[in-house]
Amino acid sequence: MAAADALAKVRNIGIMAHIDAGKTTTTERILFYTGITYKIGEVHEGAAVMDWMEQEQERGITITSAATKCEWKGHTIQIIDTPGHVDFTVEVERSLRVLDGAVAVYDGVAGVEPQTENVWRQADKYNVPRMCFVNKLDRTGADFFRCVQMMIERLNATPLVLQIPIGLEGDHIGVVDLIGMRALTWRGETQKGEDYAIEEIPADLAASAAEWRDKLLETLADVDDSVMEKYLEGEEIAADEIKAAIRRATIAGKANPVLCGSAFKNKGVQPMLDAVVDFLPSPLDIPAVEGTALDGETVLLRKPSNDEPFAGLAFKIQTDKHLGKLTYVRVYSGTLESGSQVVNSTKDRKERIGKIYQMHANKREERPTAQAGDIIAVQGLKQTTTGDTLSDPANPVILESMTFPEPVINVA
Ligand code: GDP
């Protein structure tokens, strides 16, 4: 596969949420459905009565990596840890800088909460395309439409409601897909391996579904000219055209697809993953990253291509029990080779690249090289700290233009 084709199938995303909205549960379910924690279909007989949670605990799967890779329908999804629980913005801003799109997870009872509001505003600043997942619809007091209204009022968002819930609280069994005009249901005691059933829209939701589909097309027409034309002419708009328009509007930051469900009850996660692939950008969809030459003034652009000189941003440093210091790097352009020499252009120091690792939730994989769009961990960097740019020594560039306040360290 040509590099550009492969890059078009990459989604570097963050999941942002107020504490307790379900970020961990949603991430864990994503890793499950993408086959990291279990290979769906490989489960032996009796799976239906298996206690999935217990098994998981036994395996002790926790997501501690700053970036975790998984696969969904021929696409690579990299989940970059986005701290949503802190008010100090440095780490949040840096993670927003290295991701291409985000999923905001909401508690369907509490709606839009302050920490989501903070991160949402920071994401506005960096033009991060976003979609929304209204979680916990099984909880007492869940109100999907109130949450959507809060997105408009508190976040100044333009929600594109793509689903409405079927039932709430104990009766929450699925969603109406407003693009396909069909019901997706997870009935009974949903096990995590279970796929959804596709059904007719329940009769009592038919009018509401028609109304919300119309609202979807109307909102989409407001932000997309080709939909506007057809909408005004009263022409039928095919599902593929609707999806393409949603993708354009989302990537342009003009609108936010909204989906819903209950991660904990295993409802709504697979369609949400489809939406990540369908609507959030690949590294090719975002503008070339802008930096400066070493003079700090001359503007340089780095396109997401392997033909460009190497440029990457160190965004997180972690200490691994076995590997020691690992520096997480987002590669924006060119190729990074293990064993090669690069320049830390921020500090004007040479650095030798040790081993390069692709981090998964439960394993790491050594790679000889990393390319544009990749997010990897590098061993062996001695002087690099977060926010530093690494680049091709012959073509140095400084990517981090943000000035962060130095953290105050209190020495007792
Ligand atoms: P985080 O702080 O955003 O990472 O939230 P967690 O994923 O840790 O979830 C916080 C709590 O809410 C945990 O007790 C979860 O089991 C619970 N939770 C998460 N998703 C759901 C859901 O869809 N429904 C219900 N009822 N509880 C949920």
TrEMBL record:
Any one GO MF annotation of this record: GTP binding
One term under GO cellular component: cytoplasm
Entry keywords, A to Z: Cytoplasm, Elongation factor, GTP-binding, Nucleotide-binding, Protein biosynthesis
Residues given in the record as GTP binding sites: 17-24, 81-85, 135-138
Domain Tr-type G, chain residue ranges per copy: 8-284
One example of a Gene Ontology biological process annotation: ribosome disassembly
Location in or out of the cell: Cytoplasm
Main function: Catalyzes the GTP-dependent ribosomal translocation step during translation elongation. During this step, the ribosome changes from the pre-translocational (PRE) to the post-translocational (POST) state as the newly formed A-site-bound peptidyl-tRNA and P-site-bound deacylated tRNA move to the P and E sites, respectively. Catalyzes the coordinated movement of the two tRNA molecules, the mRNA and conformational changes in the ribosome.
Family note: Belongs to the TRAFAC class translation factor GTPase superfamily. Classic translation factor GTPase family. EF-G/EF-2 subfamily.
Stated name of the protein: Elongation factor G
Provenance organism: Micromonospora pisi
Gene name tied to this protein: fusA
Covered residues, full protein: 1 to 412 of 698
